[in-house]
Design a protein that fits this description.
Length: about 400
C-alpha cells in the first residue's frame, strides 16, 4: 500500500466515524453527510483515486452489504397479510408512475433511463424517518413500509431489465437473458422453500443460520455464504452484483422469520464501516464544483420536484382504497426519498456508460436534495396532523 493510499484510507476511516455525528447535529441523513464528505475529499485526492484499488473494493463490498440488508429489511410476512385488493392497489401505484414517467420522458425527449429514476423507491431512509416520527408501528406507518417494500422490489426488477436492455438492446439475446434470470430466481425460490420444509422437520438446524454469539458466529457466516452465492450467480448471469445481493437477502427473509438479531449484527458490521466507505467513495467520484454549477443545481431541483409529482399522481390510487386524505398527501412525500437506490442507479449506469458524469451528478444531487428536504417536510406534516 502506497503512502497516499494509506493516508486516504485513514482519512476516510476517520470520516466514517466523525461524519455521522456531525450529520446528526445538522439533522442530515448520515449517508448525505458521507457523500458530501467524499466530494470534499475529491478536491485533494482526485488525481490518483482510480489507482486506489482497495478503496474501490471496500466501496463495492459496502454496496453489496447495503443491498443485502435492503433485501433482509423487506417484511414479507407483512406483505402477505395485506389484502389482495390493497396489494393490487399498491402495485397499480407503480404502474401509474411508470406510465406517467414514460409520457414525461417521451414529451420532453429525456434519456430513457429517467423512467427508472422517476419510479425508483427505497425504504432505506423511510424506515428511520418513520421511527423518528413515532408512527412506525401505526397502521399508516406499516402501510407506508409495505408500499415502499413493493416499490423497492419493483425498482430492483426494473434496474435488472434496464441493465439488460442497455447491454443487449431489444433482442432474442436480451429475452433469453431475462428468461435465464427468471428461471434462476424461480429455482432459487423453490429450493429455499424446500429448505424451509426441511427446517420445519428439523428446526434445530435453523439455528446455524440465525445463531449469533457463538465462537464460530455461524449465523453471520451463513448469511455471507448466502449473499455471495447470489452475488456470484448474478455476476455469472451478467447482472450487477447488488441485484444478486438484494434478492439473496429477500429470499433469506422469506425463509427465516426470526432474523432480527442476525440483521442487526450484519447491519452493525455494514453501517459501522463498509457502507459509509461506499457513500464516501460515491462522493469522491464527483467534482464538487460541477455539482454546484447552476445548470446542474437547477436540473437537480427540477428532477427532485418531478419525482414528487410522479409519486403524487401514483398515490391518488389510495383514494379508491378509502385512505384518509392526509395519508394520501403524505404518501408521495414518504416515497420520494429513495437515496440509496438513486445512488445505485447513478453508480450502475455510469459504469455501463449509459450516464455521463454530468447526468450522474444531477441524479446524485437530486438524491441528496430529496434526502434533506422530504424527510423534514414529512416530519413537520406528521407532527401537525398529530397536533390537530
Amino acid at each position: 500500500m502506497g503512502k497516499e493510499e494509506a493516508i486516504l484510507l485513514l482519512i476516510m476511516s476517520a470520516g466514517a466515524f466523525i461524519i455521522p455525528l456531525i450529520s446528526k447535529k445538522l439533522l442530515l441523513p448520515s449517508a448525505v453527510g458521507e457523500i458530501l464528505f467524499g466530494m470534499v475529499l475529491g478536491i485533494f485526492f482526485k488525481g490518483f483515486i482510480e489507482e486506489v484499488h482497495i478503496l474501490k473494493f471496500l466501496g463495492e463490498f459496502g454496496f453489496i452489504i447495503l443491498m443485502y440488508l435492503a433485501g433482509l429489511e423487506v417484511d414479507v410476512e407483512n406483505i402477505k397479510r395485506t389484502t389482495k385488493l390493497h396489494l393490487t392497489g399498491y402495485v397499480l401505484i407503480y404502474i401509474i408512475m411508470a406510465v406517467t414517467s414514460s409520457l414525461i420522458v417521451y414529451y420532453f425527449n429525456l434519456p430513457l433511463i429517467y423512467i427508472l429514476v422517476f419510479i425508483t423507491t427505497a425504504i432505506g431512509l423511510l424506515y428511520p424517518v418513520l421511527k423518528d416520527t413515532g408512527i412506525l408501528h401505526t397502521n399508516f406507518g406499516q402501510r407506508l413500509l409495505i408500499i415502499g417494500s413493493v416499490g423497492e422490489v419493483i425498482s430492483l426488477i426494473a434496474i435488472t431489465i434496464f441493465a439488460v436492455y442497455f447491454q443487449s438492446g431489444i433482442s432474442l439475446q436480451s429475452l433469453s437473458h431475462l428468461l435465464g434470470i427468471y428461471i434462476f430466481f424461480a429455482a432459487a425460490y423453490v429450493m429455499l422453500r424446500l429448505f424451509q420444509l426441511y427446517l420445519w422437520w428439523y428446526p434445530e438446524f435453523s439455528k446455524l443460520f440465525v445463531q449469533i454469539g457463538d465462537t464460530a458466529e455461524s449465523g453471520i457466516r451463513a448469511n455471507f455464504v448466502n449473499m455471495f452465492v447470489f452475488v456470484s450467480l448474478a455476476s455469472i448471469l451478467g447482472l450487477e452484483a447488488i441485484i444478486g445481493a438484494f434478492f439473496g437477502g429477500l429470499l433469506f427473509a422469506l425463509v427465516f422469520k426470526e432474523r432480527e438479531q442476525i440483521k442487526e449484527r450484519i447491519a452493525s458490521f455494514g453501517y459501522g464501516f463498509l457502507i459509509p466507505i461506499f457513500f464516501i467513495e460515491v462522493g469522491l467520484r464527483f467534482n464538487i464544483k460541477e455539482l454546484l454549477h447552476i445548470d446542474v443545481l437547477i436540473k437537480a431541483i427540477v428532477l427532485t420536484l418531478s419525482i414528487l409529482l410522479i409519486k403524487f399522481l401514483g398515490s391518488l390510487v389510495l383514494i379508491f382504497l378509502r385512505t384518509p386524505l392526509w395519508q394520501v398527501i403524505l404518501t408521495p412525500i414518504a416515497l420520494s426519498m429513495p437515496l440509496t437506490l438513486l445512488v445505485a442507479v447513478a453508480t450502475i449506469f455510469m459504469e455501463l456508460k449509459v450516464l455521463d458524469n454530468h447526468q450522474g451528478a444531477i441524479i446524485i444531487l437530486a438524491a441528496i436534495i430529496s434526502a434533506i428536504i422530504y424527510p423534514w417536510i414529512f416530519k413537520i406534516m406528521v407532527k401537525n396532523v398529530k397536533l390537530n
